[in-house]
Amino acid sequence: MANIGAGEIIYDLRKKIQEIQVSLKELGDPVGDMPEMIETANLLRSNDYLSKANEKKTELLDAYEQYSSALEELLLSVFDIQKDLKEILKDQSSLISESPKKRLKPKTKSKKK
Hints:
Layout: H1 6-27, H2 39-104
Helix pairs in contact: 1-2
């Protein structure tokens, strides 16, 4: 039926997403050109920043993909539980509606004349 560890997996993935977001924010804004450096050095610094940011964004996308898959699995489990509960409710309702009918039937006694 439902995965017992699904909630823990989702929690772990959410923590991973938050950690990646923090590390991405720690990278800060792209480094601006420094006038005292030559253009090639500025391009290398910019390229280094973009490479690190791209790597973190790729990790973030991967974590979100895993997170959404885990949420979909959890949601499917919830729908399965909901379906099972509806079936149980239908069964119980039919049992409840059957029992008064049996009581309402009057017993006929033969009368002596």
